[in-house]
Amino acid sequence: MTRAMKTSHITPRNPIFCALDTQDRDQATSWAARLTDSIGGIKLGLEFFNANGPKGVADVARACALPLFLDLKLHDIPNTVAGATKAIVNHLTPYMINVHAAGGGAMMTAAAKAAADTAAARGIIRPLVIGVTILTSLNDQDVAEIGMSGTASDQVRRLAALAQKSGLDGVVCSPHEAAMLRQDLGPDFKLITPGVRPHWASANDQKRVMTPGEAIAQGADYVVIGRPITHAEDQAAAAKRIVTELAA
Ligand code: C5P
């Protein structure tokens, strides 16, 4: 089944997924509601999920009616990841979910199949299933320390190719890897980049950032941006400023 066959799914109006990184359901709900008209989607991750569970995620998603990127980075044996994927898609209607590509080809294929089968059984459009390659917090030395050969960039390239071969829809990567992966993997493979900062925002703890416009120019489909929006005095104004800069 192709995504275009069903029209009920909300697609992002712009490439910005805002990371709502908090344990506080009311805080996340308030951010989501304030950003409804300005961003493309919301990202909820392990911090929020472990504090509030699927019910909390559903509450926040309902508050904004925006596409949801549920960033739980699943990584386990194929049967368990398939089960976890099935549970997610049975209880929630995310636009994107993700798994660690290092879990291997069989695990990624099992996740993609579970997402498709469960969505079909529910009569909803399946979520995009995205692979996490190498965390951008790891450098070449860290990659060597966990026993991988070659540079972090070599690993990203290898794991992204495996993700594509295993039936995933795209990968999370650094904007610095986006051009390479776009060239390797073609125009339809989704590239999602965190590590993005408007020129007027603090880098916080992110290293080697690019602006949203630069990340998109490198081939990113979606940019994940958290604190420059959520920690702004006026969240909607910050998001709209980024949208305007992207259009310029
Ligand atoms: O606030 P900030 O824009 O730095 O938030 C970025 C978001 O993207 C956070 O939720 C962070 O966990 C996530 N992320 C990241 N780098 C990765 C993977 C995910 O910053 N490699």
Measured between the Cα atoms of the first and last residue, the distance is 36 Å
The number of domains is 1
How many strands, which pairing sense, and closed or not: the largest β-sheet?
A: 8 strands, parallel, barrel
Number of strands: 8
Q: Any idea what the shape is?
A: globular
What name is given to the CATH topology?
TIM Barrel
Question: Average pLDDT across residues?
Answer: 94
CATH class call: Alpha Beta
> Rg, please?
17 Å
Tell me the structural class: alpha/beta
Total DSSP helices: 10
Structure notes:
Helix content is 47%, strand content 15%. By secondary structure, it is of the alpha/beta class. The chain has a single domain (16-247), classed as Aldolase class I (TIM Barrel). Strands 1-2-3-4-5-6-7-8 form an 8-stranded parallel barrel, surrounded by 5 helices. Strand 7 (190-193), helix 8 and strand 8 (222-225) form a beta-alpha-beta unit. Helix 3 runs parallel beside helix 4. The protein is globular. The relative contact order is 0.14. Bound molecules: cytidine-5'-monophosphate (C5P).
Describe the structure in brief:
This protein is of the alpha/beta class.
Explain the layout of strands and helices.
Layout: E1 16-19, H1 25-35, E2 41-45, H2 46-64, E3 68-74, H3 78-91, E4 96-100, H4 105-122, E5 128-132, H5 140-145, H6 152-165, E6 170-172, H7 175-185, E7 190-193, H8 212-217, E8 222-225, H9 227-230, H10 235-247
Parallel strand pairs: 1-2, 1-8, 2-3, 3-4, 4-5, 5-6, 6-7, 7-8
The structure holds cytidine-5'-monophosphate.
